[in-house]
Amino acid sequence: MSGLAEYRKEKDDFFANHAQSPLTREQRKAFQGLHYFPENEALSFEVQVREFPEKERLEMQTTTGDIQIYLRYGSFTFQVDGQEMELTIYQGEHGFFLPFVDALAGRETYPAGRYLEPEPLPGGRFLVDFNLAYNPYCAYNEMWSCPITPFENHLKAPIRAGEKLFHA
User: Taking 70 as the threshold, does the pLDDT of residue 129 lie above it?
Assistant: First the structure.
């Protein structure tokens, strides 16, 4: 079993059985596992981040109307199906954060977007693996408060990697 397959299996077990699962008790009774795109090696890469000289403070609204504070850390470009895309990485109190909405939002992926925690590497580089893209907890249960993806991270291309839309 690949590392990604093992990770997905452990996540399904957490959702089905753990007391801190984002699923309600009723949802857990019928839970059959999350849905994912097949692993896509072309959407896992190291990127060079252009760090912003001024770390602008950003108040990111959440799905429940709260505010979470992030710093606009930097941006990077990458290719999807021959199209050049750009995303911004944010820095919060728990590390780096990469929310994004892709062209499949509302059909195959969560309408409000998916999240990643890009891994910092030496020399201003980051590992960005879209195979690890996940839905925020509010995708499963509206009681959770999740940051809403800023417009600058809305992509016109599909990202066919990571977690798909949740069906209860």
Answer: yes
